[in-house]
Amino acid sequence: MNNGAFVYKRNLFSEAEIAEIAALAKDHEKIKRGVHTSGKYIDLKWFQVDLSPNLIFCRKILDALNVVQPVMIGFYYLDPGAKLHPHRDLTGASLNNRIRFHIPIITSKDVKFFVSSEEIKMKPGDLWLLDTSYLHAVENMGTQSRIHIIIECDINDEIRKNIPNGFNANLHNLFYSVILILSFLKAIFFNSIKDPKYFFDQMGMVYKFLKWRFFKSHHKK
């Protein structure tokens, strides 16, 4: 089992429901916006459209997670040729009491998704848990956009029961904590001099993270 990504609930949506949601996702492409609107990743072919948690299919997902109000929920579009390098995130990391879920809507064999260097094959309609503190990467070598519904939420008691917490998971959390500290030090002593604009982007992300983590001020990625 991959501790960073695994099926949380199989076949949450039927084929008919997936077809209906896919049609809506394609219609919404005309209003999609870049996930990164500034910084060094602004040119990534990765886009999003926010969704209301009150939509019927969104409510079905949230009910399966026993979540009333998510931090974020939306369609995410990975366009052909897009490639997200191996990385870890602050949000969606279980150590930070938040977690991320994916439900593939449109995908193909030409989409390669890796977590901890293991290829993860997601089937449309399945609900997947992704702990973004684990190294993960994705690329779309196909001819159509990969579309997922992505949800981030605070970890409740029900979700926590399903998150690995054995020796390997605890060791990973320690390793992740060290990486965060080293990344922060690198930003202060290296990026602030070599790439000030990127440094200020990083500090902006840290500021938003601290507001959310310690003052429960939710923000959208």
Characterise this structure.
- The structure is a single chain.
- Helix 4 crosses helix 5.
- Strand 7 and strand 8 form a beta hairpin.
- The strands form two sheets. Strands 1-9-6-11-4-3-2 form a seven-stranded antiparallel sheet.
- It is of the alpha+beta class.
- 34% of the residues lie in helices and 26% in strands.
- It has two domains: 156 residues, Jelly Rolls (Sandwich); 49 residues, no CATH class.
- The protein is built from five helices and eleven strands; from the N terminus they run βαββαββββββββααα.
- The two termini are 28 Å apart.
- The protein is globular, with a radius of gyration of 17 Å.
**Helicity, as a percent range:** 25-40%
Strand content: 25-35%
Give the SSE string: EHEEHEEEEEEEEHHH
Domain tally: 2
CATH-derived topology of the largest domain = Jelly Rolls
Specify the CATH homologous superfamily of the largest domain: B-lactam Antibiotic, Isopenicillin N Synthase, Chain
- What would the principal axes of the Cα set say about the shape? globular
Can you summarize this structure?
By secondary structure, this protein is of the alpha+beta class. The chain is built from five helices and eleven strands, in the order βαββαββββββββααα.
